[in-house]
Structures are given as structure tokens and as C-alpha cells.
């Protein structure tokens, strides 16, 4: 089901073993949703994984919920104080032991075959840096509100150049959230991990830095579900998100590696109002206060 790799790929020195993936779940005040999230990992058809739950100094029973699952593949760690999101996510990956990593927010879910498909792709092609899939947007009751979101124009094998041009044209995050992405641990640390100064676009910022080290595969199947119910973003948050997104687009546009063209930047500027309207419409359809790009 996976495409043939293209020319010009960078092969790695070793072949990935047919096992070993870490699913890292940072959690703060997640006792109501964590059991379902962990259950979606334990239900995977691909069985050789570990789950690293990082209890971010939760005042609730999140840690107890994780331990209650009673599976030896689950390791629960706890921070002494509440860490900012980027620091917490970095710590979760630091605690991982496997060569492949997925970060799963404590209220998101995986399709039972998510790891099967994504690990197989990584194992088959050492030149891949990022494997992503489409995802459903779900509500607080885990009902699908918007199906099969993401990866517009990015399914199949893509170079980093193709992905960067698509991102700049769209001006948002066509790749998606951590739940629908699998990456290599070695690339994560080489790229510098999650950046605190990009706190509002943590995912997209990392995906583009990972693509310095290999290629991209977009799987058309919806293999994750992202919960979109949440508090409305404040005006300050919206402004910071816009500023950080604009800074990333400028970086991509100026990069000699990604070869973004002037036409891509022009299209991105022209479509910016349209894309903002599209996100507002999607928010209304999904019933969410705010939704992923």
C-alpha cells in the first residue's frame, strides 16, 4: 500500500528493527479521558511498543488512571512541578527508549492499525523522516464531528521541498497534530525538539525541522482522532499564533534547503483571508471553540 520511494533520497546507515516504538503521552488534569486514550494504544494491532505516560504534576488522578491499566508496557513518570507544554513534551520524548516515537495528547485517540501502518512505512524506507495520516476531529463524547481531515495535496511520498511549498501556500498546518505523526527519535534530538518560542505552532514547526533529515509520507487513511473541544483562544493567543506562523513561513521561504518559490509566498498571502474563513467555518461545523488548521 506504500508508494515506491523517489530519487534523491538519503538512506541511513542502519535498517530499523521490526519493533520498538514509543508512544509518549504527556498529561495534566486528564483523568477523565486518559483511560480511553491509553486503551486506544493497547488495542493496536502492532504490539511491540512502550507507552510512556508523563504526569505533568497533575492535581487529579491521572497517574493512578495510567497505572490502573495494568499493562507492563506502560511506564508512568511524574514531574515535580508543572512544566510548560514544550518542556513537558520534550521531557516525554527524552524518557522514550525506542527508535520511533509518537507523541499522543492525553485526550486524543489512535485507530487500531495506526502503528501497524506507520511503523511498516518507516521500517520499509530508512529515508523517511516523517509519516503522517489523516485524522478525524471528535468532540468531548468521542463522536466524529469532521471526518478525514488533513494532508490536502500531501498524500503519498513527498520531498521536504514539496511539503514546504504546500505549507507556505496554505499558511497553516496541513500535516496535522502529533497524534497522526510518527518520527524518528534520533532526528528529533538532531532537530532540537519542540521549541518553547514556537509554543502556538509546536507541531508544524517540528515537522518542518524534521524534514531536514529525510522525506515525508502521507497516508490517506484516517489513523487518529483529535479532540477539538476546548476553551476559546484569547486575543493575545491568536496574535501570538499568527506571529509565530508568519515567522515560520518566512523561515521556510528564505531556506535554501526547501526552495520555496516566490509564487508560493504570493499564493500564501493571497489565500490567507480565505484560509482564516475556512477555519472559522470548520469551527462552526465541528462545534468547537477552536479547531486545528
Please summarize what this structure is.
This protein is an alpha/beta fold and 293 residues long. It contains nine helices and ten strands. Helix 5 packs across helix 9.
Structure report:
Strands 1, 2, 3, 4, 5, 6, 7, 8, 9 and 10 form a ten-stranded mixed β-sheet that branches. This protein has a single domain, classed as Alpha-Beta Complex (Spore Coat Polysaccharide Biosynthesis Protein SpsA, Chain A). By secondary structure, the chain is α/β, with parallel strands linked by helices. The relative contact order is 0.16. The longest helix is centred in the last third of the chain and has 25 residues, at 262-286. Mean pLDDT is 88; it is low at 1-19 and 289-293. The protein has nine helices and ten strands. Strand 6 and strand 7 form a beta hairpin. It has helices at 34-42, 62-68, 85-94, 114-124, 160-170, 185-191, 202-210, 235-254, 262-286; strands at residues 21-27, 49-55, 74-78, 100-103, 109-110, 128-138, 144-149, 156-158, 181-184, 215-227.
Amino acid at each position: 500500500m506504500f508508494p515506491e520511494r523517489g530519487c534523491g533520497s538519503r538512506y541511513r546507515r542502519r535498517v530499523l528493527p521490526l519493533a520498538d516504538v514509543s508512544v509518549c503521552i504527556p498529561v495534566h488534569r486528564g483523568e477523565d479521558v486518559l483511560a480511553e486514550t491509553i486503551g486506544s494504544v493497547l488495542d493496536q494491532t502492532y504490539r511491540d511498543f512502550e507507552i510512556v505516560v508523563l504526569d505533568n504534576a497533575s492535581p487529579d488522578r491521572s497517574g493512578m488512571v495510567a497505572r490502573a491499566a495494568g499493562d507492563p508496557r506502560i511506564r508512568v513518570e511524574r514531574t515535580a512541578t508543572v512544566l510548560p507544554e514544550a518542556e513537558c513534551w520534550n521531557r516525554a520524548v527524552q524518557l522514550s527508549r525506542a527508535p520511533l516515537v509518537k507523541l499522543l495528547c492525553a485526550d486524543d485517540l489512535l485507530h487500531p492499525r495506526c502503528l501497524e501502518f506507520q511503523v511498516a512505512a518507516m521500517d520499509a524506507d530508512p529515508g523517511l523522516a516523517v509519516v503522517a495520516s489523516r485524522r478525524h476531529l471528535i468532540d468531548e463524547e468521542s463522536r466524529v464531528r469532521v471526518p478525514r481531515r488533513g494532508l490536502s495535496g500531501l498524500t503519498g511520498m513527498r520531498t521536504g521541498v514539496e511539503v514546504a511549498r504546500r505549507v507556505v501556500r496554505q499558511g497553516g498546518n496541513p500535516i496535522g497534530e502529533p497524534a497522526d505523526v510518527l518520527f524518528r527519535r534520533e532526528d528529533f534530538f538532531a532537530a532540537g525538539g519542540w521549541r518553547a518560542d514556537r509554543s502556538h505552532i509546536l507541531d508544524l514547526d517540528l515537522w518542518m525541522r524534521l524534514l531536514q533529515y529525510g522525506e515525508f509520507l502521507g497516508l490517506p487513511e484516517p489513523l487518529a482522532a483529535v479532540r477539538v473541544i476546548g476553551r476559546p483562544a484569547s486575543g493575545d493567543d491568536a496574535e501570538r499564533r499568527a506571529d509565530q506562523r508568519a515567522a515560520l513561513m518566512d523561515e521556510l521561504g528564505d531556506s535554501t534547503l526547501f526552495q520555496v518559490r516566490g509564487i508560493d509566498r504570493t499564493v500564501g498571502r493571497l489565500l490567507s483571508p480565505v484560509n482564516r474563513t475556512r477555519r472559522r467555518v470548520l469551527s462552526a461545523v465541528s462545534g468547537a471553540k477552536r479547531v486545528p488548521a
